[in-house]
Amino acid sequence: MFGMGEPGQALLQLERYHNSGRDELAEVMCSQFVENFLSKKCDFQEQLHLVKGLRLLASIYFSREKYKEAIKTISTLHKRRNKLLKIIEREAPQLLEKITSPAEDFRLEGKVLAKLGKTSKAAKSWSSVAKIEPLHLAGLCESVLYLGPEKGRDVRLLSATQHCGPV
User: Fold this and answer.
1) pLDDT, tens digit, for every residue of 111-160?
2) Which is it for the CA torsion 100, 72, 61, 16, positive or negative?
3) pTM value?
4) Is the N or C terminus of the chain more exposed, i.e. has fewer CB atoms within 10 Å?
5) What is the DSSP letter of 41?
6) Ramachandran sector of residue 65 (left: φ over 0; alpha: ψ -120 to 50; beta: rest)
7) DSSP-assigned states of every residue in 62-110
8) Residue 136: CB partners within 8 Å, gap ≥ 6?
């Protein structure tokens, strides 16, 4: 695959393909990218690239409406992200604030589960977002959009919006 000498550059190119709507090409290349890292024991930097690749692949699957593949990828993403967090806590705790929040992974998981019709599991994912980041407006908005305003979701969204203040 192109750019495997520099995985960071390959990820940037894959993100550009995804953002420009070339999801079929991005899916093929990203799945190959991820498989390459899953097949070997990863050091810290490789684990970081793997987590980013898994997140991108799950997003591509979601946009291509391949929800079952997205759920499998997200499951692997959760395991690998937890492994990465343990490595970061042990070797470089100053990087914890620079990595993408796990809330973003749970947001994506909630959207995929909602599309699959698994509303209770989707609600659990968005509740994980709220536990990690209580004022995560995008997560609260998506929970209302995908699951409806029932069970106090609308109240939580309004209270978070008021708490955040004007933008």
Assistant:
1) 999 999 999 999 999 999 999 998 888 998 999 899 888 888 888 888 88
2) positive
3) 0.89
4) C
5) -
6) left
7) HHTT-HHHHHHHHHHHHHHHHHHHHHHHHH-GGGTTTSPPHHHHHHHHH
8) 103, 107, 129, 130, 160
